[in-house]
Amino acid sequence: MTTLLSLPPPSSSSSSSHCFSTAFSSCHQPSVVVTTGRPTRFLPVAATTTTTHHHQQIDKSSLTVAEAAEEDQLWAAACLRVRSFYDFQLSSYGIQDHKRYLAEREFVALKERIAGKREDFKRVSCINATLPLSQLSSSASDLCAACKFTSNGEDRVVVGTLDLNQCLWLPEEIAGTKPEGIEAEYRRAYLSNVCVARELHRNGLGYDIVAKSKIVAEKWGITDLYVHVAVDNEPAKNLYLKSGFIHENDEPAWQARFLDRPRRILLWIGFPCTNES
């Protein structure tokens, strides 16, 4: 694994809530502080929490949904993923150091995927939804501290994120079947790491980042887009079905047991190739 020579400021995150998909990462989860899952190459789907959160309504006129390239925005996205895909015991010793470690691992892995340094990934893009810091209320102070970056002199916050992966399959996941033949290597893609800050649920941000990913995928010449989701993750399934995805396949029960995780289903959407970069 590449060693970071300099790192962005540490994050300050807290326990997680529902996320929209299984997340692909290089992160591992020491069980001393993480309450879900086991050591694996994939972040777990975050568990349902009994905590009631205030959901701030936002002004979408200031929302930006775009591909991210700058390192500080990628770092903010990595921090959002850690606070979304893990449940933490906040009283555990060294919790902040562990959160930073997880964010660093995801940050490095994300940069490597985008740079084309990961085998079997032809192209990867990180798509973020961001808002000006000034638009977020005091109830989102933890989010602002963890996921802030600066763009053109303005402080902004990553409030939603996903990866678009052009590849034949994601490691440890069932593969799509469309298209067939040599075209599959160039025309198939998957969504991963799909999450929205819990403080801003019910604002349609999940639909916004998925819609942007479809635009980028068509620009790449992708004809078949896939996403994996846990069978019991109803909010995620609703999001994807309302976004046009349909069921294609189910993960075998034995595979889910072997990987010690909830069983996945594979959803698909197709669109014609009208432009290729």
Please describe what this structure looks like.
This protein has helices at residues 71-85, 95-114, 141-147, 184-187, 205-220, 234-242, 253-259; strands spanning 23-24, 42-43, 64-68, 123-132, 148-151, 154-166, 188-196, 224-230, 246-250, 264-270. The protein is α+β, with helices and mostly antiparallel strands and 277 residues long. The protein has one domain (23-49, 64-270): Aminopeptidase (3-Layer(aba) Sandwich). The model is unreliable at 1-18 and 25-52 (pLDDT under 50). This is N-acetyltransferase domain-containing protein.
Summarize the structure in short:
The chain has 277 residues and is of the alpha+beta class. Helices cover 28% and strands 23% of the residues.
SSE class: alpha+beta
Helix content: 25-40%
For the record, what is the CATH homologous superfamily label? Gcn5-related N-acetyltransferase (GNAT)
Q: What number of structural domains do the residues give? A: 1
Task: State the helix count.
Answer: 7
Strand residue content: 15-25%
Question: How many extended strands?
Answer: 10
Any idea what the CATH architecture is?
Answer: 3-Layer(aba) Sandwich
The geometry reads as globular
Poorly predicted spans = 1-18, 25-52
The CATH topology name reads Aminopeptidase
Mean pLDDT: 83
Instruction: Report how far apart the termini are.
Output: 30 Å
Main sheet specs? 8 strands, mixed
